[in-house]
Specification:
One of its GO terms (molecular function) is dopamine beta-monooxygenase activity. This protein is 16% helix and 36% strand. By secondary structure, the chain is of the alpha+beta class. It has 5 domains: 112 residues, no CATH class; 143 residues, Jelly Rolls (Sandwich); 144 residues, Jelly Rolls (Sandwich); 100 residues, no CATH class; 142 residues, no CATH class. The longest helix has 17 residues.
Length: 735
């Protein structure tokens, strides 16, 4: 018996176990605590015991369903019940030595163009069992050729078939259906870990069409991570260039509305029978296609010519389809946390204004970066959970999972959309900030829905826990009416300002009485938590040596007390600035700018100063009542990329009433997003003229003439001065 047990032990140590699906046998406890079944006279297969001896062996995704784990990497079946795959055979030829050798790592077992180490997250072939060598998430399966349904891979995967959970593209072979191929010109891929390449394409515009399906064309599967197709504003037209250029994955205005895409989790897009994406005369006439590449070894010389084929029909379906984004910005993930949640919401008092009638969600998508582990999007109705739209409990950035619904999910006006992102930061030593690049983290969701006309303008972005849509409508956020508080700070809230000034004037020291007054003022709900941080980022004061010196004195003194010194500094400097200097800049240098006039008002005064040290501008705006009122207000979207020239005008008779902007210290430039409103009634813009308010490094001080509105902006950036020159357009409004 001892010899028999010794033989069993030797057998298991060689990494062999008998097929676990056989009907009879004996259970054997392995030395590492796992168990296996031994059956006599049956085929020997590779056990899970061996998976600890290959990188990410316990985390390889199922090529058919990215939410599942392929538990037997060396076999054609996920449970080890089928024959060995090509990787399993190579592992066998390696003698089951439980060694991740360099030869095995660099070998492309499944011949899909990716070597085994690349697919298993060890692109430099440095990992060994028990080592602390950092691994990337596994990209794909080393023993199954992917994409599994490609012509090349079907011949290599034998009888393997995936049961697709996606709706069938039933109509693409109909006689009325045409197609257009959007293919990237053969281009070199940058030797970067993550990069994006964009290209502009024209669409048929001779009639009205609905896009009903989209299928990818994969040229270089080894590095292509995803494709996103963005629709361009049909009211604006780009000159087609037929060229590829580097981009950041989010094209500049006017091409920012996602209409379809490709990832390993979604090999194709098929619209339901009721809806399609409108192109043509009244729809999109141009699209920007962004190709995302993942090249962890930063290898040079890769090329690609992938693309998308769109299938479209002149037989319009009942509804237009649209895509709505949900996003949280400016959050931070602290280091060393096994679980850290970021929660955002698009509250019911926002959707009741934005969503005109019931909409139907047919697809949900989650998006985080490398620390993301779980993400879900929920619909709440009447204070109770109504429906879970997405729920990814094992999120992998390289294998995103899309949630398709043949039975659409209904969203009603007044429903709340709640999104929760969970991160694991145990691998980090520093705080990870929100960033659209892979250096930071993201918490974003996308919903594909119909009819688009019922939700034409979506504003479901959060600044941390603050829903910006509620800021726009001046709804209470944590007890604070933010816009009213800001607008009334120097008028009805003057008592609050005077209280601090009276006790903390520049001629007084930072006394205990001053600190008590500040502490009392800070009880205002608009001066607490995330809403206070939003205020600090959008209304920092003008740089002033005397004020800064006093603020530093107060900060130094206050470090001996208990209140955080930053609270004293920001609160005091902002209030002093408003009363004694008459100018309160709406942003600080290198800080975001967010300003919107109260409802029914328009911008009447624009001032800006450039500083050569931070190479940035601070801005100030003033508003006056618009005699014609305002209606149909919306954000333009980002109108420029870094260092780009832009020309923007509010559509129709609209005028600018707000601005959102953020700065990047790399290109030393700002991106701009304008808030435009339409006048009420039959009011027309005419007698327009333009003015050049500044030179590079020069201040802007521009008054909007009475009876005129701020219609548009043209701007170009100079890399020498690291500043922008602006041209403002003003138009008269009259009936």
């Amino acid at each position: 018996m001892e010899k028999f047990v010794g033989w069993l032990d030797k057998l298991f140590r060689r990494g062999r176990v008998i097929d676990p699906q056989m009907s009879s046998g004996m259970r054997y406890s392995l030395p590492d605590g796992s168990t296996a079944l031994l059956f006599f006279g049956k085929k020997i297969v590779l056990s899970e015991f061996c998976l600890a001896y290959i990188p990410n062996g316990l985390n390889v995704k199922d090529p058919c369903d990215a939410t599942q784990i392929w538990k037997s990497v060396g076999h054609m079946g996920p449970l080890g019940s089928q024959m060995r795959n090509a990787f399993g055979e190579d592992f066998k030829l390696n003698g089951f030595r439980k060694q991740w050798t360099t030869d095995l790592c660099w070998k492309d077992s499944d011949q899909d163009g990716r070597y085994n180490g690349y697919e298993l997250g060890d692109p430099w072939c440095l990992w060994t069992p028990g080592s602390k060598q950092a691994l990337y998430p596994p990209l794909s399966h080393p023993g199954i050729c992917e994409p599994w349904d490609s012509e090349k891979c079907q011949s290599r995967n034998g009888s393997m078939q995936c049961n697709s959970k996606m709706p069938a593209c039933d109509g693409i072979n109909a006689t009325d259906v045409k197609n257009i191929t959007l293919r990237l010109p053969l281009s070199y891929v940058p030797a970067r870990r993550v990069s994006y390449v964009c290209s502009l394409f024209n669409l048929p515009s001779d009639a009205e069409y609905h896009v009903i399906a989209a299928l990818p064309i994969i040229d270089n599967s080894q590095i292509l991570h995803g494709i996103t197709v963005f629709g361009c504003d049909p009211r604006r037209q780009f000159n087609r260039t037929d060229r590829a250029y580097l981009c950041n994955g989010i094209p500049t205005t006017p091409c920012q509305e996602i209409i379809t895409g490709y990832t390993s989790g979604v090999p194709q897009t098929c619209m339901p029978a009721e809806a399609g994406v409108r192109i043509g005369i009244k729809g999109f006439k141009q699209v920007m296609v962004a190709f995302q590449y993942y090249n962890p070894t930063r290898r040079q010389g890769y090329t690609d010519s992938s693309g998308m084929t769109l299938y479209y029909t002149p037989k319009l379906r009942r509804f237009d389809a649209g895509v709505s984004p949900l996003e949280v910005t400016h959050f931070s993930v602290p280091p060393g946390r096994e679980s850290y949640e970021v929660v955002s919401a698009c509250p019911g008092d926002c959707t009741v204004l934005q969503v005109a009638s019931p909409i139907y969600i047919i697809l949900g998508m989650n998006h985080m970066h490398r620390l993301g582990r779980k993400q879900r999007i929920e619909i709440h109705r009447g204070g109770k959970l109504q429906q879970i739209v997405t729920n990814d409990t094992n999120y992998k950035v390289v294998h995103p999972h899309y949630f398709w619904y043949k039975q659409p999910i209904q969203l009603l006006p007044g429903d709340m959309l709640k999104m929760t992102c969970e991160y694991n930061s145990t691998s980090e030593n520093d705080t990870i900030e929100w960033d659209v690049s892979w250096r930071g983290e993201m918490c974003k969701g996308l919903l594909l829905y119909y009819p688009k006309q019922s939700w034409p303008s979506h504003h479901c972005q959060n600044y941390r826990s603050v829903p910006l849509c509620e800021i726009m409508i001046d709804a209470p956020v944590f007890g604070c009416h933010f816009r009213s508080f800001i607008s009334n700070l120097a008028t009805t809230n003057r008592t609050l300002v005077d209280t601090v000034i009276r006790n903390c004037g520049q001629d007084k020291s930072c006394s205990p009485l001053c600190l008590r007054m500040i502490g009392k003022v800070r009880q205002d709900p608009c001066l607490q938590g995330d809403i206070y941080d939003l205020w600090k980022e959008t209304r920092l004061v003008k740089a002033n040596t005397q004020l800064m010196a006093f603020g530093n004195h107060c900060t130094t003194y206050h470090q001996r007390i208990t209140m955080p010194p930053s609270n004293v500094r920001y609160m005091f400097l902002i209030l002093i600035c408003i009363v004694q200097f008459g100018v309160c800049w709406k942003n600080g240098y290198d800080m975001p700018l967010y300003f919107v006039c109260p409802a029914g008002n328009m911008i009447s005064y624009i001032r800006s100063i450039h500083n050569n040290t931070p190479e940035d501008r601070v801005w100030d705006f003033r508003c006056r009542r618009n005699p014609y009122g305002s209606n149909g207000c919306s954000w333009s979207g980002w109108v420029n990329g870094w260092d780009e020239t832009f020309r923007f005008q509010c559509r129709g008779n609209g005028y600018i009433t707000g601005i959102y902007s953020y700065h990047d210290n790399g290109p030393e430039d700002r991106r701009f997003n304008f808030y435009c409103c339409q006048p009420r009634g039959k009011v027309y813009a005419h007698s327009c003229y333009s003015t050049l308010p500044n030179g590079y490094d020069r201040q802007i001080q521009q008054t909007v003439p009475y009876g005129y509105t701020w219609k548009g902006v043209t701007s170009n950036h100079d890399n020498g001065a690291e500043d922008r020159q602006f041209v403002f357009q003003f138009c008269r409004l009259s009936k």
